[in-house]
Every structure is written in C-alpha cells, then in structure tokens.
Amino acid sequence: MKLSVFTVIFMLVLGSLPLLAQVSASFDAEDDEQRFVEMSKAVESIFQAITAINQLAAADQVDQGKIDSLNAEKGRQADEIINICSHYFLCQRIKLPFASKREDAIDRYRDQLDNIHQLMRAAMRCKMASDLHDAETLKSLAASFKEAYKN
After folding, report:
1. What single string gives the DSSP state of each residue in 59-80?
2. Rounded to whole angstroms, how far apart are CA atoms 16 and 9?
3. How far apart are CA 149 and CA 151, in angstroms?
4. pLDDT for the residue numbered 21
5. Considering the chain, what is the average pLDDT of its residues?
6. Predicted local distance difference test score (pLDDT) of residue 119
7. What does the alpha-carbon distance between residue 33 and residue 124 come to, in Å, rounded to a whole number?
8. In the chain, what are the domains?
9. What is the rounded average pLDDT of the residues 5-13?
10. Nearest to 141 by CA among 10, 51, 43, 63
C-alpha cells in the first residue's frame, strides 16, 4: 500500500513539473530593466550590422556571404526586439487601467501603446532594409518607449 501511495504522489509531482516550468519569474523593476538592456544590445547589434553591410556593399569586391550573414543577424536582433515588446511588455506588463483610474493613467497607457507600436515597426523596418537612419530611429524610439514606460 505504501508503494502505491508513493507512486501516486510521485506521478502527481512529476506530472506538474511542466506546469511549474512555465511559471514566469516575478515581474519587478529588475525584470523590466533586464528587458531594456536586452533591447539596447539588440539595437546596438542592428546598428553595427547595418554599418558593416553598408561598408561591405561599397567595397570594390563585395563579400555577399558576409553581407548575408550580417543581414541574418540583423533580422534575428530585430525579431528579438519585437518578441520582447510583444511577449513581455504587451502581454505581461502594459495593462489597461481600470475605469476608476484617473484620466492621466489612460493617457499614460495610450502613450505606452503608441511608443511600443512605433518601436516594433521601426525594428521591422531595420530588419527589411539597411538604412542607418532607420537604426537611429530605432535607437531613439527604444529610449522614448523606456521613458514612457517608466513614467
């Protein structure tokens, strides 16, 4: 009898492990700051990749393999920014204020949504093109979103 009770408990614990693995860490300022650091690194990688692509494209002998590699890296970094924006900030952190909240809370919410939407669109533009102006815009929008989110 003891063996079957132990087996049942073991199976219940073992069966719940996948559920426990999906539980996210507590959401606090450190998590937010870590996401902003990750986005900042991705923005810098995109900026460096675009700079290198433009230099390679202007060279006498074009190294298409290197350009393709840099384009792929630029795309991965843009996807990383979009994933952080959508999966972390939009799905978990930015929340619609309740009706009882003040009007300034609703304005803050709208400002955050506007900023994050522009940031995601800028990341997509950087993924699809190699214009330094787009990378500078992305950097500016990342800073703008961080400010809107923290206020």
Report:
1. SSS--HHHHHHHHHHHHHHHHH
2. 11
3. 6
4. 46
5. 86
6. 97
7. 23
8. 30-150 (1.20.120)
9. 66
10. 43
Cα 148 to Cα 150: distance, rounded to the nearest angstrom: 6
For residue 7, the Cα-to-chain-centroid distance in whole angstroms is 42
Here the tokens at position 60 are: 């006498």
Residue in 85, 76, 88 with CA at minimum distance from that of residue 115:
85
- In tens, the pLDDT along 90-135 reads 998 888 887 666 788 888 899 999 999 999 999 999 999 999 999 9
- Residues constituting the chain: 151
Most confident option among 2-16, 49-63, 114-128: 114-128
Amino acid at 106: I
Q: Which amino acid is at 145?
A: F
Residue with tokens 């990750």: 38
